[in-house]
What we know:
Blueprint: E1 14-24, E2 29-39, E3 42-46, E4 56-63, E5 66-78, E6 82-88, H1 92-104
Antiparallel strand pairs: 1-2, 1-4, 2-3, 3-6, 4-5, 5-6
Amino acid sequence: xxxxxxxxxxxxxxxxxxxxxxxxxxxxxxxxxxxxxxxxxxxxxxxxxxxxxxxxxxxxxxxxxxxxxxxxxxxxxxxxxxxxxxxxxxxxxxxxxxxxxxxxxxxx
Length: 108
């Protein structure tokens, strides 16, 4: 029988690519990457220096002069490749911006 992993995402993901900047809370280390596979509640960040699972982040995603900002937590890590993050406590105005990008199928 094949090994099938149950999908745990709460919302559809979109193949958008956005510039990502994240700050590791606690150390205030600032890193950059590329966000992809973006949904209402999280995304994947391509980065050579992923943080450990459970690490809280301050996350900024940018496109076309606009910036989506929210807190996030690393939920899984692909060493040397990137990390999956879940958005936390996203302010309503930021959620509206992200929803607009997703509806438009923003690609950078």
